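Lecture notes, unit on protein representations.

Consider one protein chain, 465 amino acids long.
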Amino acid sequence: MNVHASKSFLTVTAGNYTLLRNFNAYLNAKHIKSAYFFKEFIVHVENHTLDLTFSPTTNASGGYAFVNGIEIVSMPLILYYQGNNVSAMKTMHRVNVGGQRIPPNEDTGMSRSRAMDSSYIFGEAFGVENCKFDASITYPKEVPAYIAPQGVYETARSIGSVPEININYNLSWTFPLDPSFTYLIRLHLCDISRNIAKTNQRAFDIFINNQVIERGIDIIALTYGNDIPLYRDFTILIPNLIMKHDLWLKLHPNLQRKPQYYDAILNGAEIFKVSNIDGNLAGLNPSLKNESSVDGDEPSFSSSSSRTSTEAILIIIGSFLILVLAISLGVYLVAFLRRRNLEWTKKENTRSSLPYRSFSIDKIKMEIDNFNKENLFDRGAFGLVYKCYIDHGSIAVTINRLIQAIPKQDLYIFNVEIRIHHHVRHQNLVQLIGYCKEEHEVILVYESMPNATLFECLHFADQRQ
Protein backbone atom coordinates (compact mmCIF):
# COMPACT_ATOMS: atom_id res chain seq x y z
CA MET A 1 0.00 0.00 0.00
CA ASN A 2 1.78 3.14 -1.28
CA VAL A 3 0.74 5.52 1.51
CA HIS A 4 2.55 7.39 4.26
CA ALA A 5 1.64 7.33 7.95
CA SER A 6 1.13 11.09 7.90
CA LYS A 7 -1.99 10.45 5.76
CA SER A 8 -3.68 8.34 8.43
CA PHE A 9 -6.36 10.45 10.12
CA LEU A 10 -8.90 8.33 11.91
CA THR A 11 -11.84 8.53 14.29
CA VAL A 12 -12.45 5.89 16.96
CA THR A 13 -15.75 5.44 18.78
CA ALA A 14 -16.83 3.06 21.53
CA GLY A 15 -20.60 2.95 21.55
CA ASN A 16 -21.77 6.51 22.21
CA TYR A 17 -18.30 7.73 23.20
CA THR A 18 -15.86 9.39 20.79
CA LEU A 19 -12.39 8.28 21.88
CA LEU A 20 -10.34 9.82 19.05
CA ARG A 21 -11.30 12.23 16.27
CA ASN A 22 -9.14 13.15 13.28
CA PHE A 23 -6.29 11.43 15.11
CA ASN A 24 -2.90 11.17 13.39
CA ALA A 25 -0.54 8.52 14.78
CA TYR A 26 2.41 9.91 12.82
CA LEU A 27 2.22 13.38 14.40
CA ASN A 28 1.74 11.96 17.89
CA ALA A 29 4.70 9.59 17.53
CA LYS A 30 6.93 12.43 16.32
CA HIS A 31 5.76 14.62 19.20
CA ILE A 32 6.66 12.12 21.94
CA LYS A 33 9.75 10.91 20.01
CA SER A 34 8.72 7.26 20.15
CA ALA A 35 8.10 4.73 17.40
CA TYR A 36 5.13 3.26 19.25
CA PHE A 37 2.62 4.22 21.94
CA PHE A 38 -0.77 3.21 23.28
CA LYS A 39 -3.95 4.98 24.35
CA GLU A 40 -5.90 3.82 27.39
CA PHE A 41 -9.62 4.50 27.87
CA ILE A 42 -12.16 3.58 30.54
CA VAL A 43 -15.75 3.08 29.35
CA HIS A 44 -18.86 1.55 30.89
CA VAL A 45 -20.20 -1.34 28.80
CA GLU A 46 -23.89 -2.20 28.67
CA ASN A 47 -25.31 -5.61 27.65
CA HIS A 48 -21.87 -7.30 27.69
CA THR A 49 -21.00 -5.94 24.22
CA LEU A 50 -18.37 -3.33 23.33
CA ASP A 51 -18.61 -1.84 19.83
CA LEU A 52 -15.33 -0.30 18.64
CA THR A 53 -15.37 1.51 15.29
CA PHE A 54 -12.28 2.76 13.41
CA SER A 55 -13.00 5.02 10.45
CA PRO A 56 -10.67 7.18 8.33
CA THR A 57 -11.32 10.89 8.08
CA THR A 58 -13.19 11.38 4.81
CA ASN A 59 -11.73 14.78 3.90
CA ALA A 60 -8.13 13.53 3.79
CA SER A 61 -6.90 12.52 0.34
CA GLY A 62 -5.72 8.91 0.37
CA GLY A 63 -6.53 8.59 4.07
CA TYR A 64 -6.80 5.29 5.88
CA ALA A 65 -7.26 3.96 9.42
CA PHE A 66 -5.17 1.34 11.21
CA VAL A 67 -4.58 -0.21 14.62
CA ASN A 68 -1.82 -2.59 15.74
CA GLY A 69 -3.45 -4.14 18.77
CA ILE A 70 -6.39 -3.95 21.15
CA GLU A 71 -6.52 -5.00 24.81
CA ILE A 72 -9.77 -5.13 26.76
CA VAL A 73 -9.48 -5.49 30.54
CA SER A 74 -12.34 -5.55 33.02
CA MET A 75 -12.12 -3.45 36.17
CA PRO A 76 -14.15 -2.98 39.35
CA LEU A 77 -17.03 -0.54 38.97
CA ILE A 78 -15.86 1.56 41.92
CA LEU A 79 -12.20 1.76 40.94
CA TYR A 80 -12.46 5.32 39.62
CA TYR A 81 -16.18 6.07 39.38
CA GLN A 82 -18.42 7.41 42.09
CA GLY A 83 -22.17 7.13 41.53
CA ASN A 84 -23.47 6.38 38.03
CA ASN A 85 -21.06 5.46 35.24
CA VAL A 86 -22.24 7.83 32.53
CA SER A 87 -18.81 9.26 31.73
CA ALA A 88 -15.89 7.74 29.88
CA MET A 89 -12.30 8.56 30.77
CA LYS A 90 -8.93 8.62 29.06
CA THR A 91 -5.73 7.96 30.99
CA MET A 92 -3.47 10.96 30.46
CA HIS A 93 -0.68 10.27 32.97
CA ARG A 94 0.05 7.54 35.51
CA VAL A 95 3.35 7.90 37.39
CA ASN A 96 5.19 6.11 40.17
CA VAL A 97 6.60 9.00 42.20
CA GLY A 98 10.14 8.53 43.48
CA GLY A 99 10.50 5.01 42.08
CA GLN A 100 11.15 3.02 38.93
CA ARG A 101 8.72 2.31 36.12
CA ILE A 102 6.13 -0.31 37.05
CA PRO A 103 5.29 -2.52 34.02
CA PRO A 104 1.80 -3.92 33.34
CA ASN A 105 2.68 -7.43 34.58
CA GLU A 106 3.37 -5.99 38.06
CA ASP A 107 -0.05 -4.37 38.31
CA THR A 108 -2.97 -5.79 40.29
CA GLY A 109 -4.42 -7.72 37.35
CA MET A 110 -5.48 -4.75 35.20
CA SER A 111 -2.31 -4.35 33.08
CA ARG A 112 -1.76 -0.73 34.09
CA SER A 113 1.74 0.68 33.66
CA ARG A 114 3.30 3.51 35.64
CA ALA A 115 6.07 5.75 34.37
CA MET A 116 8.84 7.35 36.42
CA ASP A 117 8.05 10.88 37.57
CA SER A 118 11.49 12.39 36.91
CA SER A 119 10.52 13.74 33.47
CA TYR A 120 7.56 15.61 34.99
CA ILE A 121 9.46 17.38 37.78
CA PHE A 122 9.74 21.13 37.31
CA GLY A 123 13.18 22.69 37.66
CA GLU A 124 16.12 21.23 39.56
CA ALA A 125 14.30 20.71 42.87
CA PHE A 126 14.05 16.93 42.66
CA GLY A 127 13.74 16.47 46.41
CA VAL A 128 14.67 13.13 47.96
CA GLU A 129 13.69 9.68 46.71
CA ASN A 130 12.48 7.37 49.48
CA CYS A 131 12.19 3.59 49.32
CA LYS A 132 11.22 0.89 51.78
CA PHE A 133 11.17 -2.40 49.92
CA ASP A 134 10.89 -4.37 53.15
CA ALA A 135 7.68 -2.54 54.00
CA SER A 136 4.61 -4.59 54.75
CA ILE A 137 1.95 -2.46 53.07
CA THR A 138 -1.34 -2.84 54.92
CA TYR A 139 -4.34 -1.99 52.74
CA PRO A 140 -7.25 -0.64 54.81
CA LYS A 141 -10.87 -1.44 54.01
CA GLU A 142 -11.43 1.85 52.18
CA VAL A 143 -8.34 1.29 49.98
CA PRO A 144 -8.63 -2.16 48.33
CA ALA A 145 -5.42 -3.76 47.10
CA TYR A 146 -6.47 -3.33 43.45
CA ILE A 147 -6.33 0.49 43.80
CA ALA A 148 -2.56 0.40 43.19
CA PRO A 149 0.15 -2.27 43.50
CA GLN A 150 2.46 -2.42 46.48
CA GLY A 151 5.34 -1.03 44.40
CA VAL A 152 3.63 2.37 44.30
CA TYR A 153 3.56 2.67 48.07
CA GLU A 154 7.06 1.26 48.67
CA THR A 155 8.64 4.35 47.06
CA ALA A 156 8.01 8.07 47.43
CA ARG A 157 9.50 11.49 46.85
CA SER A 158 9.85 14.04 49.66
CA ILE A 159 11.28 17.55 49.83
CA GLY A 160 14.18 16.77 52.15
CA SER A 161 15.43 16.93 55.72
CA VAL A 162 16.63 20.55 56.04
CA PRO A 163 13.69 22.70 57.24
CA GLU A 164 15.41 26.01 56.49
CA ILE A 165 15.56 24.98 52.84
CA ASN A 166 12.23 23.14 52.64
CA ILE A 167 10.11 26.14 53.64
CA ASN A 168 11.49 28.16 50.73
CA TYR A 169 10.49 26.00 47.79
CA ASN A 170 7.86 23.59 46.48
CA LEU A 171 8.10 20.08 45.14
CA SER A 172 6.51 20.60 41.71
CA TRP A 173 5.41 18.54 38.70
CA THR A 174 3.90 19.63 35.37
CA PHE A 175 1.59 17.47 33.24
CA PRO A 176 0.52 18.49 29.69
CA LEU A 177 -3.25 18.22 29.15
CA ASP A 178 -5.87 19.05 26.53
CA PRO A 179 -7.95 22.20 27.15
CA SER A 180 -11.75 22.34 27.55
CA PHE A 181 -12.07 19.15 29.62
CA THR A 182 -12.63 18.16 33.23
CA TYR A 183 -9.91 16.00 34.77
CA LEU A 184 -9.86 13.53 37.62
CA ILE A 185 -6.61 13.65 39.60
CA ARG A 186 -5.81 10.81 41.98
CA LEU A 187 -2.86 11.14 44.38
CA HIS A 188 -1.49 8.09 46.21
CA LEU A 189 -0.10 8.71 49.70
CA CYS A 190 1.64 6.38 52.15
CA ASP A 191 4.11 7.39 54.85
CA ILE A 192 7.02 4.94 54.71
CA SER A 193 9.48 7.07 56.69
CA ARG A 194 10.96 5.21 59.65
CA ASN A 195 11.32 8.36 61.77
CA ILE A 196 7.69 9.48 61.39
CA ALA A 197 5.03 7.61 63.35
CA LYS A 198 3.07 10.30 65.21
CA THR A 199 0.57 12.95 64.22
CA ASN A 200 1.80 16.42 63.30
CA GLN A 201 5.30 15.22 62.56
CA ARG A 202 4.74 16.00 58.87
CA ALA A 203 1.89 18.10 57.49
CA PHE A 204 1.77 19.72 54.07
CA ASP A 205 -0.43 21.54 51.56
CA ILE A 206 -1.42 20.32 48.09
CA PHE A 207 -1.73 22.83 45.24
CA ILE A 208 -3.17 22.26 41.75
CA ASN A 209 -2.65 25.10 39.29
CA ASN A 210 -1.58 27.35 42.18
CA GLN A 211 -4.83 26.77 44.09
CA VAL A 212 -4.85 25.05 47.49
CA ILE A 213 -6.96 21.91 47.21
CA GLU A 214 -6.05 20.40 50.57
CA ARG A 215 -4.35 22.16 53.43
CA GLY A 216 -2.38 20.58 56.25
CA ILE A 217 -2.76 16.95 55.20
CA ASP A 218 -1.24 14.62 57.81
CA ILE A 219 -0.94 11.05 56.51
CA ILE A 220 -0.28 9.49 59.92
CA ALA A 221 -3.33 11.24 61.39
CA LEU A 222 -5.51 9.85 58.58
CA THR A 223 -4.14 6.29 58.44
CA TYR A 224 -3.14 5.83 62.11
CA GLY A 225 0.25 4.40 61.23
CA ASN A 226 3.10 3.80 58.80
CA ASP A 227 2.90 1.72 55.61
CA ILE A 228 -0.88 2.25 55.34
CA PRO A 229 -1.94 3.77 51.99
CA LEU A 230 -4.65 6.25 51.19
CA TYR A 231 -5.60 8.22 48.10
CA ARG A 232 -7.16 11.57 47.37
CA ASP A 233 -9.35 12.35 44.32
CA PHE A 234 -9.75 15.86 42.94
CA THR A 235 -11.47 17.23 39.83
CA ILE A 236 -10.43 20.32 37.93
CA LEU A 237 -11.66 22.03 34.77
CA ILE A 238 -9.04 23.15 32.26
CA PRO A 239 -10.39 26.28 30.51
CA ASN A 240 -11.13 26.59 26.82
CA LEU A 241 -7.72 27.39 25.39
CA ILE A 242 -6.36 26.99 21.89
CA MET A 243 -3.13 25.22 22.76
CA LYS A 244 -2.38 22.37 25.13
CA HIS A 245 -2.25 23.27 28.81
CA ASP A 246 0.15 22.29 31.60
CA LEU A 247 -1.33 21.19 34.91
CA TRP A 248 0.82 22.14 37.91
CA LEU A 249 0.96 19.90 40.97
CA LYS A 250 2.84 21.31 43.95
CA LEU A 251 3.50 20.23 47.53
CA HIS A 252 4.65 22.58 50.29
CA PRO A 253 5.10 22.16 54.06
CA ASN A 254 2.23 23.53 56.13
CA LEU A 255 3.69 26.23 58.36
CA GLN A 256 0.55 27.04 60.33
CA ARG A 257 0.39 23.64 62.03
CA LYS A 258 4.08 23.85 62.99
CA PRO A 259 4.87 20.16 62.41
CA GLN A 260 8.04 18.56 63.71
CA TYR A 261 9.38 18.16 60.16
CA TYR A 262 8.74 20.79 57.49
CA ASP A 263 8.40 18.28 54.67
CA ALA A 264 5.96 16.79 52.14
CA ILE A 265 5.68 13.36 50.49
CA LEU A 266 3.96 11.76 47.49
CA ASN A 267 3.93 8.14 46.25
CA GLY A 268 1.99 8.21 42.99
CA ALA A 269 -0.30 10.21 40.72
CA GLU A 270 -2.93 9.41 38.08
CA ILE A 271 -4.65 11.94 35.81
CA PHE A 272 -7.73 11.09 33.70
CA LYS A 273 -9.61 13.14 31.13
CA VAL A 274 -13.40 12.94 31.68
CA SER A 275 -15.73 12.91 28.66
CA ASN A 276 -17.90 15.97 28.14
CA ILE A 277 -21.68 16.06 27.89
CA ASP A 278 -21.53 14.79 24.28
CA GLY A 279 -19.44 11.77 25.24
CA ASN A 280 -16.34 13.23 23.56
CA LEU A 281 -12.78 12.49 24.71
CA ALA A 282 -10.97 13.53 21.54
CA GLY A 283 -8.27 16.18 21.77
CA LEU A 284 -6.11 17.99 19.24
CA ASN A 285 -3.18 16.59 17.31
CA PRO A 286 0.16 18.12 18.34
CA SER A 287 1.47 20.81 16.02
CA LEU A 288 4.97 20.11 14.75
CA LYS A 289 7.18 22.58 12.92
CA ASN A 290 8.43 21.54 9.48
CA GLU A 291 5.84 18.73 9.33
CA SER A 292 3.45 18.28 6.43
CA SER A 293 0.06 19.86 6.97
CA VAL A 294 -3.16 17.89 7.03
CA ASP A 295 -4.07 18.84 3.49
CA GLY A 296 -0.52 18.90 2.12
CA ASP A 297 1.20 16.46 -0.18
CA GLU A 298 2.68 13.25 1.11
CA PRO A 299 6.25 13.75 2.34
CA SER A 300 8.76 12.83 -0.33
CA PHE A 301 11.75 10.65 0.48
CA SER A 302 13.22 10.55 -3.04
CA SER A 303 16.37 12.46 -3.92
CA SER A 304 17.94 13.78 -7.10
CA SER A 305 21.46 14.77 -8.07
CA SER A 306 20.64 18.48 -8.04
CA ARG A 307 19.11 18.24 -4.57
CA THR A 308 22.15 16.29 -3.34
CA SER A 309 24.53 18.90 -4.72
CA THR A 310 22.58 21.74 -3.14
CA GLU A 311 22.53 19.98 0.21
CA ALA A 312 26.29 19.35 0.02
CA ILE A 313 26.98 23.04 -0.67
CA LEU A 314 24.74 24.11 2.20
CA ILE A 315 26.47 21.66 4.55
CA ILE A 316 29.92 23.03 3.62
CA ILE A 317 28.81 26.65 4.09
CA GLY A 318 27.08 25.83 7.36
CA SER A 319 30.13 23.98 8.70
CA PHE A 320 32.39 26.93 7.84
CA LEU A 321 30.08 29.41 9.58
CA ILE A 322 29.89 27.19 12.67
CA LEU A 323 33.71 26.99 12.77
CA VAL A 324 34.05 30.78 12.54
CA LEU A 325 31.43 31.23 15.25
CA ALA A 326 33.17 28.71 17.54
CA ILE A 327 36.54 30.48 17.15
CA SER A 328 34.93 33.88 17.85
CA LEU A 329 33.22 32.56 20.97
CA GLY A 330 36.49 31.02 22.16
CA VAL A 331 38.37 34.31 21.77
CA TYR A 332 35.59 36.21 23.54
CA LEU A 333 35.48 33.68 26.40
CA VAL A 334 39.24 33.90 27.01
CA ALA A 335 39.11 37.71 27.04
CA PHE A 336 36.10 37.68 29.36
CA LEU A 337 37.77 35.35 31.87
CA ARG A 338 40.98 37.40 31.89
CA ARG A 339 39.03 40.62 32.46
CA ARG A 340 36.99 39.08 35.28
CA ASN A 341 40.12 37.73 37.02
CA LEU A 342 41.68 41.17 36.74
CA GLU A 343 38.60 42.77 38.31
CA TRP A 344 38.64 40.30 41.20
CA THR A 345 42.38 40.95 41.71
CA LYS A 346 41.72 44.68 41.91
CA LYS A 347 38.90 44.15 44.38
CA GLU A 348 41.07 41.90 46.54
CA ASN A 349 43.72 44.61 46.61
CA THR A 350 41.19 46.96 48.25
CA ARG A 351 40.94 44.71 51.32
CA SER A 352 43.66 46.54 53.17
CA SER A 353 41.80 49.86 52.77
CA LEU A 354 38.64 48.61 54.54
CA PRO A 355 38.48 49.58 58.24
CA TYR A 356 37.54 46.21 59.77
CA ARG A 357 39.31 42.97 60.45
CA SER A 358 39.77 40.84 57.34
CA PHE A 359 39.25 37.10 57.78
CA SER A 360 40.62 34.55 55.35
CA ILE A 361 38.20 31.99 53.93
CA ASP A 362 40.34 29.22 55.41
CA LYS A 363 39.95 30.79 58.86
CA ILE A 364 36.16 31.02 58.43
CA LYS A 365 35.89 27.41 57.26
CA MET A 366 38.00 26.18 60.16
CA GLU A 367 35.90 27.99 62.78
CA ILE A 368 32.55 26.60 61.53
CA ASP A 369 33.79 23.21 60.34
CA ASN A 370 33.61 24.00 56.61
CA PHE A 371 30.04 25.41 56.83
CA ASN A 372 28.74 22.34 58.67
CA LYS A 373 24.92 22.34 58.91
CA GLU A 374 25.20 21.65 62.64
CA ASN A 375 26.52 25.18 63.08
CA LEU A 376 23.68 26.68 61.00
CA PHE A 377 21.71 29.01 63.27
CA ASP A 378 19.26 30.92 61.11
CA ARG A 379 18.50 32.26 57.62
CA GLY A 380 18.55 36.04 57.44
CA ALA A 381 18.00 38.62 54.72
CA PHE A 382 21.72 38.55 53.90
CA GLY A 383 21.92 34.75 53.69
CA LEU A 384 22.75 31.85 55.99
CA VAL A 385 23.70 32.62 59.61
CA TYR A 386 26.17 30.45 61.55
CA LYS A 387 27.17 30.70 65.24
CA CYS A 388 30.68 29.93 66.44
CA TYR A 389 33.63 31.15 68.50
CA ILE A 390 36.83 32.74 67.21
CA ASP A 391 40.24 33.53 68.70
CA HIS A 392 40.55 30.22 70.53
CA GLY A 393 36.97 30.32 71.80
CA SER A 394 37.23 33.74 73.47
CA ILE A 395 34.75 35.66 71.25
CA ALA A 396 31.23 34.49 70.31
CA VAL A 397 30.25 35.63 66.82
CA THR A 398 27.63 35.12 64.12
CA ILE A 399 28.82 34.57 60.57
CA ASN A 400 26.50 35.77 57.78
CA ARG A 401 27.24 34.07 54.48
CA LEU A 402 25.69 35.26 51.23
CA ILE A 403 24.51 32.15 49.37
CA GLN A 404 23.66 33.80 46.05
CA ALA A 405 26.04 35.15 43.44
CA ILE A 406 26.67 38.85 44.12
CA PRO A 407 26.61 41.21 41.10
CA LYS A 408 29.69 43.25 40.32
CA GLN A 409 28.05 46.55 41.26
CA ASP A 410 27.01 45.13 44.65
CA LEU A 411 30.65 44.55 45.62
CA TYR A 412 31.07 48.31 45.67
CA ILE A 413 27.96 48.59 47.90
CA PHE A 414 29.42 45.86 50.12
CA ASN A 415 32.55 47.97 50.69
CA VAL A 416 30.43 51.07 51.39
CA GLU A 417 28.36 49.12 53.96
CA ILE A 418 31.51 48.19 55.86
CA ARG A 419 32.64 51.82 55.93
CA ILE A 420 29.20 52.96 57.18
CA HIS A 421 29.41 50.44 60.04
CA HIS A 422 32.75 52.01 60.96
CA HIS A 423 31.18 55.45 61.42
CA VAL A 424 27.84 54.37 62.97
CA ARG A 425 28.44 52.85 66.41
CA HIS A 426 26.11 52.56 69.39
CA GLN A 427 25.98 50.38 72.48
CA ASN A 428 22.53 49.06 71.49
CA LEU A 429 23.53 48.15 67.94
CA VAL A 430 25.18 44.87 67.08
CA GLN A 431 28.78 45.54 66.10
CA LEU A 432 30.49 44.40 62.93
CA ILE A 433 33.77 42.62 63.73
CA GLY A 434 35.08 41.82 60.28
CA TYR A 435 34.47 40.44 56.83
CA CYS A 436 35.71 37.91 54.29
CA LYS A 437 35.88 38.44 50.54
CA GLU A 438 37.82 35.56 49.04
CA GLU A 439 37.13 32.80 46.51
CA HIS A 440 33.94 34.61 45.43
CA GLU A 441 32.63 34.35 49.02
CA VAL A 442 30.99 37.39 50.66
CA ILE A 443 30.84 37.00 54.46
CA LEU A 444 30.17 39.38 57.36
CA VAL A 445 31.25 38.58 60.95
CA TYR A 446 29.16 40.21 63.73
CA GLU A 447 29.36 40.03 67.48
CA SER A 448 26.96 37.49 68.97
CA MET A 449 23.87 38.54 70.96
CA PRO A 450 23.91 36.38 74.13
CA ASN A 451 20.60 37.84 75.35
CA ALA A 452 18.77 37.05 72.07
CA THR A 453 17.46 39.45 69.45
CA LEU A 454 15.10 42.39 70.02
CA PHE A 455 12.32 40.39 68.32
CA GLU A 456 12.79 37.46 70.69
CA CYS A 457 12.88 39.72 73.75
CA LEU A 458 9.63 41.39 72.72
CA HIS A 459 7.66 38.34 71.62
CA PHE A 460 9.02 35.49 73.73
CA ALA A 461 9.70 37.23 77.03
CA ASP A 462 7.34 34.95 78.97
CA GLN A 463 8.99 31.81 77.63
CA ARG A 464 12.46 33.13 78.47
CA GLN A 465 11.37 33.82 82.04
